Amino acid sequence: MTEKDALSQRIIELETIAQISTAVSGILDLDQLLQFALVRTKEQFDLYHVNIALLDEAGGNLVPVMGDNNMLSIHSPVPAIPLQQQPSICARVARERITMVVNDVYRHPDFMPHPLLPETKAELCLPMIVGDQLIGILDVQARESNRFTEEDVRIHKTLAAQFAIAIQNARAFRLSAQRAEELTILNEMSRSLSSTQGIEPLLTTFVHYAARLIDTTNLYIVFYEPENRAAGEIVFALDVADGQFRWYDRRRHFANGLVEYILRTERPLLIPAHVAEKVKELNLEVPRGIRSKSWLGVPMVVNGRVTGVVSLQNHTTPYRFNEDSLRLLVSMVNQVALAVENARLYAALQEQTTHLEQEVARRTVELTRTNQQLTTEINERKQAERALQVYAQELERSNQELDNFAHVASHDLQEPLRKITTFGSRLEEKYGTTLDERGLEYLQRMQSAANRMQHLILDLLVLSRVTTHRQPFSPVSLSSITHGVLSDLEVRIEQTGATVTVDNLPEIEADPTQIRQLLQNLVGNALKFIDPHRAPVIQIYSRATANGGQEMCQIFVKDNGIGIEPRHQARIFEIFERLHGRTLYEGTGVGLAICRKIVERHNGSISVESIPGEGATFVVTLPCRQ
User: Fold this and answer.
1) CA-CA distance, 258 to 251, in Å (whole number)?
2) Which of the pair, 394 or 301, is modelled with greater confidence?
3) Contact 310, 219 (CB under 8 A)
4) Alpha helices (H) along 348-436
5) What's the DSSP call for residue 617?
6) I need a labelling partner for 490 at 20 to 30 A (CA). Which of 38, 183, 332, 615 fits?
7) 135 and 13: one domain?
8) DSSP states along 546-579
9) Lowest mean per-residue pLDDT among 87-101, 457-471, 522-536
């Protein structure tokens, strides 16, 4: 493939990435988003198979999304992949948060052949991460060995990052819609309860709304009468199994079961799975023939007094109840407990007319306040939903601008410069002997300007990639990175006769590539702006500090160079700011702007202390843990 063909192919790939990124950022339905990502990635990059697996709620398994184009759904009946499973390329990528390129799968110990994918010869698997949160993995497969190159890895890393952000946005949108629907149902239930009389109608209404919000196969309600505590009795009032209502007035001695445990502790109890084992762990009596796979119980509390327990059971599926289920049930039980209490008071209205009228009025005020709070929460959820949509649009616009800049910088700007440089060299080679001294000077100035422009474009690309091509934070040895930087600058150090000392530097959580760029720019500047009358001396050391209780690390890069005037110290970190002419010191005026952007991405700060003619000290302050 010629250089021109390779460049054309690169442009097509960049446009494809931009199109896919723009499309996924605008899809807020998770199933549609996953379907689009799988189909479009497979079609655009001519792949044999594409799969996305999402981390489940418990964080212990990857749940694959079907890669078959005829059936795409996050709810597809595909077995989950435990993160600790070995061998498994997908599990290892998620577990270690690394990218794996396997260009000959049958030679790799982690490859697991799949009976539905017999033609797989090469596999590329990447983690999908937002911030420090693992969303899942993107797995692509090819029919040819040695199919995936470094360019493929870079392209699919970009796609994986975009997919991760889009999936997180879709989940946030779904959660916002779910919360709004929940609040609407709770508000509707509150109105229904406030307009219903009699304990049985109230409980029936409550069960109806509970079934709409929480998946359960069994619900029962127990009332507790504190005045009968001495007699040791609780009253079973209602048992709903598979939609069938059974009403009781059956009493049971106060024993050592789950219901009594909630009555004693006056706190909710969530047992997502392994119910029998949890009952034994709490030193409670295990009911005979227990069938619950998941169990949830909430006390009914009115005015600080426990009046009963509402319990949900699921006999078929473990982990059916979670913290969201607990939150919803607590909200509903608080309302129904208050409504039931009101009903009891209303039943005694004829005997205690004056006193109970005041009590019912107070209860009504409480219910009204609850309705107002729910209405306020609904409005807040709607505002959050609108803000999320604005954020998604802004993210789409920002991504488009970055993609446009990368396209211009990589093609529209660099290609003409390469032509200027190439034809300038040819002109010098072929006609250099025929040009006079001024013609040669013009030619050299033209080539020098083209080289400066090319360096400026490359520096601007580095600046833009601080946010678009960043790596996740990980433990980084500053000492190792510093010695690597000095090794890269070894020739420059020898040429200037510089003496460089490095103290023992700590380990921090950071992006290793960007920290290396930061230190290389700072040390490179110290080697550039030297005093011609004395040998350069550069000191690199650190100091521990704190900011608001957070452990911080200060990195000092000190030199004895020409120094910086005080009036210029604030603006040297701005882009294109140069204090000296190009004939004195080379550079584009972008290096310190890159340093500042890297430091800000790491939630830190950078400053300079300097006395003109005596040198400068750059101080970088970074959190030890992100």
Assistant:
1) 16
2) 301
3) yes
4) 353-407, 414-431
5) E
6) 615
7) yes
8) EETTEEEEEEEEEE-SS---GGGTTTTTSTT--S
9) 457-471
Give 333-373 pLDDT, tens digit per residue. Answer: 888 888 888 877 777 666 666 666 788 788 888 878 878 88
CATH of the domain at 532: 3.30.565.10
User: Would you state the structure tokens that stand for residue 272, as one six-digit string?
Assistant: 């997502």
Give this prediction's pTM.
0.41
Contact 245, 211 (CB under 8 A): no
* pLDDT per position as a tens digit, 57-104: 778 888 887 554 444 444 445 678 888 888 999 999 999 999 999 999
Q: How far apart are the C-alpha atoms of 21 and 249, rounded to whole Å?
A: 61
298: DSSP letter: E
Q: Is the dihedral of CA 285, 288, 294, 298 positive or negative?
A: negative
Q: Could you give the number of structural domains in the chain? A: 3
**132-146, 323-337, 436-450, 483-497, range with the lowest pLDDT:** 436-450
Same-domain status, 145 and 205: no
Contact partners, residue 40, CB within 8 Å, separation at least 6: 20, 23
Distance from the Cα of residue 254 to its chain's centroid:
48
What token pair was written down for 547?
Answer: 């900011």
Domain region containing 555: 470-623
Rg over CA atoms, the chain = 34
